[in-house]
Amino acid sequence: MKHNHTTDHSVIDDIQGIGLGVFLCGLGIYFLTSVGLITGQTAGLAVIIAYLTGYSFGIVFFVINLPFYFVAYKRLGLEFTIKSLISVTLLSVVTTFLPLGFTIQTLDPALGSIIFGCLVGLGLLAMFRHNGSLGGLGVIALLVQDTTGFKAGWVQLITDAIIFSAAFFLFPASIVFYSLLGAIVLNLIITFNHRRDRYIAT
């Protein structure tokens, strides 16, 4: 069914949409790291670096995203870049303070990875629909989809395959396999649900 009209998002729409997206992503990452798993994309690189260096995920994630803002500004516009910068900053704050609110004492790694994939997948969808992202490699994936039609989810799956291949040299195989499950769930949610022709509000 095709729509014949567009609907603009108000500032309040964007605040609640991006805010919800950031919170869901932060919650998903907290479940992931609570069971010692990793993920793909820029967040995955940040998680790996945080594990190896001892720095907090929030700080590493913020710093590693900085180079991508230039690309986002040049190719996807100022609004997208500002929203992405705000989102990344908020996610860094959320992931820093969530452990102060509750702790996860018992969680099966497979279930943890699935919860992560669902929460972050839904969170990213909410952010994409309000012209935001968590920066990094997600910016490249959206750029590829918008310019070539090749789905962002598939771009992220390919990138994740490279990251997880490298992870086999750093982590036990069981950790990588459980983590890969979460990444697959996340990217399939994006692949099947993120279509600009299906959601036309801006």
* Low-confidence blocks of residues: 1-6
Number of strands: 0
CA-atom Rg in angstroms: 16 Å
Query: How far is the first residue's CA from the last residue's CA?
Result: 19 Å
Largest sheet: none
Output mean pLDDT. 83
Number of helices: 8
Structural summary, described in words:
The protein has one domain. It is 75% helix and 0% strand. The protein contains eight helices and no strands. α2 runs parallel beside α7, α3 runs antiparallel to α4 (78-101) and α3 (57-76) runs parallel beside α6. It is globular and about 45 Å long. It starts with 10 loop residues before the first helix and ends in a 9-residue tail after the last helix. 43% of the residues are buried.
Summary of the model, kept short:
Mean pLDDT is 83; it is low at 1-6. This protein has helices spanning 11-34, 41-53, 57-76, 78-101, 109-128, 136-148, 152-167, 173-193.
Which helices and strands occur, and which strands form pairs?
Elements (H helix, E strand, L loop, with lengths): L10 H24 L6 H13 L3 H20 L1 H24 L7 H20 L7 H13 L3 H16 L5 H21 L9
Helix pairs in contact: 1-4, 1-5, 2-3, 2-7, 3-4, 3-6, 5-8, 6-7, 7-8
Looking at this protein, list some descriptive labels:
202 residues, disordered N terminus, 75% helix, globular, mainly alpha
